[in-house]
Structure formats: structure tokens, C-alpha cells
Amino acid sequence: MVQSQSRRLNNRHSRDKRCIFNHSATVRVAPHKDDRHWHDLCKAITICEGSPLMKLVIAIIKPFKLDEVREALTAAGVQGMTVSEVKGFGRQKGQTEIYRGAEYTTNMVPKIKIEVVVGDDIVGQVVETIQQTAHTGSIGDGKIFVTDVASAVRIRTGETNETAL
After folding, report:
1. Angle, alpha carbons 150-77-58 (nearest 5°)
2. Which of the listed residues 19, 53, 119, 134 has the most CB atoms within 10 Å of its CB?
């Protein structure tokens, strides 16, 4: 009986889109009359054509610019963000510091990583706001990356996509 249910589940999932949970099943774009065999999360995050697009903006900036960037993004309409302390290097190749009269070279430079998920309609404004606010004109100002976000689910309410932001 379990095998036949599993086959039915895989048959139900055998059209159009791959399930993002990588359980070797695919999900259908169009709902079916008998959808009781769908995974609940697959039903919640199935993306139909024409659904709103979201973008993940990742910015690596200098630590002392965090407050300015946060205030500017709040003014631009961003409602939330994730901030992490990170270390890395780029063209700077590290930095030289003098501590108690001795010179030390560090390979990794401390930075701040900001992650913001926004709607496709304001992503340009968000990128421009970060770029203008974090700019100092010196080496090590940082980088901004933009990637697509397939779906989002608010854990507390179950809201999906842009309403979950």
C-alpha cells in the first residue's frame, strides 16, 4: 500500500516544475481537483506563471557604514534585513595594522554582509541606495550582488512570496 501511495504521489508531481525540497519529485503548476497527495509545502510554494518576482540583494560593506545604509534602506521602504559580521578580502589583499609599535598584516578584512529580499519593482532603487550610501571612494567599499528568489514563506502565518516579506 505504501508503494502505491508513493507512486501516486510521484505521478501527481510528475508535471512541469521540480520540487525545491529535492526529494526527487516534481510539482505541478496548475492545481488538480484531487490534490490531497501533494506535499503541503509544495502546494504553498508552487510558482505559477505571472507570479511576482523577488530578488535577494547581498551587500558587503565597511562596518562603519552599517547605520547609514540601514537608515537609507528603511527610508527607501525596505522592511527588514539580515546583517552578519564577515571577514574576507578582494583587491585590498588584507591590511597592515600597527599594534603596540609592531606592524601586523592581516589577510582577512572585517566587513558587514547585508541581505535584503525585495520585490522586483524596487530592486534597482535598493541597489542604488546601498551603492550611494556605502560609497567612500576608497578601496574596500564593497560589492553588491543580486539574485533571484523563487519563493518565500513566513513561518508564523504561512504567507507566501511578496506578502511574506
Report:
1. 45
2. 134
Cα separation, 109 vs 106, in Å, equals 7
- Strand-pairing partners, residue 142, are 61
Confidence category of residue 95, pLDDT binned at 50, 70, 90: low
Residue 42: predicted pLDDT:
52
Length of the chain: 165
Yes or no: say if 28 and 12 are a contact pair by the CB < 8 Å rule. Answer: yes
Closest-CA residue to 138 (of 92, 105, 88): 92
Domains and CATH numbers, the chain: 2-48 (no CATH), 54-149 (3.30.70.120)
Rounded-to-integer distance, Cα 6 and Cα 117, Å? 35
With 0.90 as the threshold, say if the pTM is over it: no
